[in-house]
Amino acid sequence: MEFIRNAWYVAGWSSEIDQELRRFTILDENIVIYRKADGDVVALEDRCPHRLLPLSLGKRIGDNIQCGYHGLTFDCSGKCVRVPGQNNLPASAYVDAFKTVERHNIVWIWMGDQDKADPADIFDLAEFSDPAWEAHQGDALHLKSNYLNVAENLVDPAHVSFVHPTTLGNSASENVPVHVSTEGKAIVAWRWIRDSEPIGFFKKFGDFSGNVDRWHYYYLHLPCTAVIDFGSAPTEDAIAEDDRNKGVRIFALHFMTPVTGGYTIDRWMHLRNTALGDDEAAENMDAMFRIAFDEDKAILEAVQKEEERPAKRRPIRIAIDKGPMVYRKRINEMLELERTHDVASDPSPAFVYHD
């Protein structure tokens, strides 16, 4: 499978990475990741260029890695700094090094052209640093599913009524139209369900005594980061769409890391404007999220199995598929840009461009 490489992906939560040599597989490539003595994160190709033993099976020599087969040693830039038994160091004795950035207790990695890695492009939200909000990391959900299907599921409010009837949705939203905007960098799908019974999640955490107005806003940032902004407010408050902070509001964040063509890790967390400092509430929210995301897992893994079987006919698309269809189109456009090398950035004076 072809992956977009010139993008920031989540390598792991900060808590997953320590001074031990650990193998991570990202975009079908094995990476050894560890922390230097000063705490900075190193990511190197996990394969010695000599006999191809994974470097993660070697050992630390200070901040360097010594291969466990014949002792070739590599520094944090991937350069070979020692070949036992000889003084010359072949230029071909190196491993690829990948830039990493640690932010909000998340470690990001750039898998493509290292000269194009700009930390300013890393996904961020103002609420991470807002004292009126609390961030809480959840789990890493392992899915036997193509990351494209996982991402499409996270820009699809319509499935919530049917897949998550006891946690994140109920039947009141089944026929409520979904709005879609594809004009910005993120693909956005949303809908409001007015004057309805609270969903299971907000029955537990919203303390609502009557009907609510509730919303789901799905933001999909390419290639595969999603934010689901959902919440509720008492119907009698009649809050406007731009006043969602007046209600109980949650951001569920999904950082999808493609492992292989049929395997994705979805690291999920939430930001909330309620129950600040309440660890028990956070754990209870996690428990409900786990129920909902296991429901997604069952659906997505079943779809993956069917996609791998011979197709009898082309799948159909319906009105709710606008967001996913635009997502696939943009992914294909990004892949096409990476298939070619643009050498026309400084056009020849032999050509005159009029656009």
Q: Which structural class do the helices and strands define?
A: alpha+beta
What's the helix-strand series? EEEEEEEEEEEHHEEHEEEEHH
Q: Distance between the terminal alpha carbons, to the nearest Å?
A: 35 Å
Low-confidence stretches: none
Q: Give the DSSP E fraction (strand runs of 2 or more residues).
A: 25-35%
In the CATH hierarchy, the third-tier topology of the largest domain is known as Naphthalene 1,2-dioxygenase Alpha Subunit, Chain A, domain 1
Helix-residue proportion: 10-25%
CATH top level of the largest domain? Alpha Beta
Number of helices, where a helix is a run of at least 4 consecutive DSSP H or I residues: 5
Instruction: Specify the biggest β-sheet.
Output: 7 strands, antiparallel
Radius of gyration: 23 Å
Shape: globular
CATH architecture assignment of the largest domain: Alpha-Beta Complex
DSSP summary, beta strand count: 17
Instruction: Identify the strand order in the major beta sheet.
Output: 11-17-16-15-14-13-12
Organism: Roseibium polysiphoniae
Keywords: 2Fe-2S, Dioxygenase, Iron, Iron-sulfur, Metal-binding, Oxidoreductase
Protein name: Aromatic ring-hydroxylating dioxygenase subunit alpha
GO molecular function, one term: dioxygenase activity
